[in-house]
């Protein structure tokens, strides 16, 4: 992978991490009981509101730092597909004036999928372990 591609991957990882961290913080600020209530109101088990909030918060931090990037990005793909199928699909791609569409979710899925399959970048905690492993062999 070229140096420019590695730099872009790093920017994508950090940006996606910041966006998920912001969503996680917002859920905690709303109150997790309110988030669980909203999940229940759309037919999703309320406890998943707590799970998603923690995934977004902790996963966002992990991506920013580059910790377990592939796994976190894979979990984000699952969360985003779940959000599309349960909350956003009925509103359409661009939304329906009543709620958001799922166009940004698709973009986030593509970034997360890139991170699942892209090589580890230098500016990450993951790179410390991949270097150690490659030098030990």
TrEMBL record:
The keyword Membrane is assigned to this record: yes
Show the Pfam families listed in the entry. DoxX
Alphabetical UniProt keywords? Cell membrane, Membrane, Transmembrane, Transmembrane helix
Tell me how this protein sits in the membrane.
Answer: Multi-pass membrane protein
Q: Show the stretches that span the lipid bilayer.
A: 42-65, 72-94, 106-125
Where is this chain's protein located in or outside the cell? Cell membrane
Family indicated by similarity: Belongs to the DoxX family.
Q: What is this protein called?
A: Membrane protein YphA (DoxX/SURF4 family)
Q: Which organism is it from?
A: Paenibacillus brasilensis
